[in-house]
Amino acid sequence: MSVTEKVELYKFDEEKYLKEGDAIIAQRKEVEEIADQVFEKGFTNVFLLGIGGTEFEFAQFDYLLNKYSTLEVYAINAADANTVHPTKLTKDSLVITSSASGTTVEIVEALTWIKEIGATVVGFTKKDCPVGKLCSIVIEAKVTTGQCEYAYVLQSYLLYSILNKRNEFPEYERFADQIKNIFKNLVDIRKVFEPKADEIAKQLYNKPYTIFTGSGALWGETLLFSMCILEEMQWVRTRPVTSSQFFHGTLELVEKDVPVFIVKGEDEYRKQDNRVEDFCKKINAEYVVLDTKEYALDVDDKFRPFVVPWIVTALLTERLAAHYELYTRHNLAYRRYYHQFDY
Fold it and tell me: In this structure, is residue 22 part of a structural domain?
């Protein structure tokens, strides 16, 4: 028995997680057939339409698609899209959206006029819901829980299948084969991180506010945790800022009881993350580093860039969130305003 097998994860149903992970992997053929369908129909550009959490979740794909493909990809905030109606969004566009609830008001509004334009819309949501009914195609996760990684795997099957068809990801089949064990990997990673999650939460939960830095493929995950989890679900004050922008204002706010949480990635932006860490060391600031390089995955190194964000969401959005809840004694499900009334 490995050391991690002995670790019990606080408020985490491992058996259910792995069972539902298997259900997600089993949807690969279904999603790849949808990729065939939209590719054969053709499109001139891709719009990743989200807001709040879904916008942040799409950030990794915006970054990676623009890095590895010549495809025109635009990540758009649904409320902003409703305000400006992007001129490049036409009947020949492919719009990809996501909504766990299926009722996100800004996305419903956006899809109403996008449908009138005639663009193809693929939605990762429930089929029988307001968002789903406005989509051309719906990919519904066959699970009962809303783990971000479930959506990421399904979205990867769709988007990277399309890149493969464009001859921009020729090793897609090997990539897709290798991530079949990703959920087991992410459980093991959780167990490695569990003691550290408790330590970090105990250290930071009652700070007046915490600065969060991140960059590259991990910037969206940094926003997701600091805003959607800590601000929305824990009422903890945060200041998310990219590693580069940190040095143009935010650095002056670093003082006693204002710690810096550094989400450190593995891409070309790591240099920027290291600069933030070096600064914190230089001024003796209180800081915490989450370095994805410390966590192993059963995928080829060349595929790690595509899955490293999933490590961060498993560790922060899932594990660290649970431990913050333990110390703040504020239920993650309790909101003051969100979904409490119309606004």
Answer: yes
Last residue of a domain, one of 179, 207, 226: 179
Instruction: Supply 151's token pair.
Output: 């959506």
What is the residue whose two structure tokens read 């999933």? 310
Same domain, 19 and 149: yes
Domain around 239: 181-328
CB within 8 Å of 153: residues ≥ 6 apart: 24, 25, 179, 182
pTM of the prediction? Answer: 0.95
Condensed to tens digits (0 to 9), the pLDDT of residues 128-171 reads 999 999 999 999 999 988 789 999 999 999 999 999 999 999 99
User: Considering the chain, what percentage of its residues have pLDDT values greater than 90?
Assistant: 95
- Distance, in Å, from the CA atom of 164 to the CA atom of 148, rounded to the nearest integer, reads 24
CB 315 within 8 Å of CB 189: yes
Q: Which amino acid is located at 6 in the chain? A: K
Cβ partners under 8 Å of residue 100, min gap 6 = 53, 54, 125, 146
Letter for the amino acid at 192? Answer: V
The residues, ordered by sequence, that sit 6+ positions from 107 with a Cβ below 8 Å of its Cβ are: 49, 50, 51, 54, 78, 97, 99, 131
The rounded distance, in Å, linking the Cα atoms of 320 and 337 is 23
Under 8 Å between Cβ of 110 and 95: no
Contact 287, 261 (CB under 8 A): yes
Q: 80 near 255, Cβ under 8 Å?
A: no
Last residue of a domain, one of 179, 194, 227: 179
Strand, helix or coil for residue 134? coil
